[in-house]
Amino acid sequence: MLWRPKESYMNLTSYERLMLSLKLRSLAEEDPSYAPQAEIIEQGYTFLYSEVFGSTAEPELPQEVQEEVFDILDMFRALHPGHEVGPDWNPEGNRYYQKFRGFDGNNDPHYGFARFLIEKFGRFEESKSELNSHGPTLSTYRGMFRRWKALGKPSSPTEEQIDGIIGS
Q: What InterPro entries does this protein's entry cite (predicted)?
């Protein structure tokens, strides 16, 4: 099973988040390991509050959005070109969406959380690329996820399964 934080149900006021982030930023000057914790609080990444508090918290960035980001990145981990897909794989051909293409940085709340998970929290590094798709991708990812889920979420899908998931 892939790493996933505990669910969170904490609700902090803006003032509490500000005070806590200032304290964490101050601590980060001495110990840089506090910097990601400060950003978790500043951005309202409540799905990761357990990393800061060691307990649970209530959503500020909707829980559904955070879970969907994990689901989509889990799927792309399985689809990652590092898996055995054969020598004919062409990322610009019919398997364009085998590689994670990011979320729309201007219009999609998934973008900031995915960027944080990959670039700053060190998760799903195989999806590290241009994380801003500069256009809508979510409906495509949702369709792909439904097909992957219907297959039982294989961690190493066959070429035929990949083609079915991608819809090529």
A: UPF0304_YfbU, YfbU_alpha-helical_sf
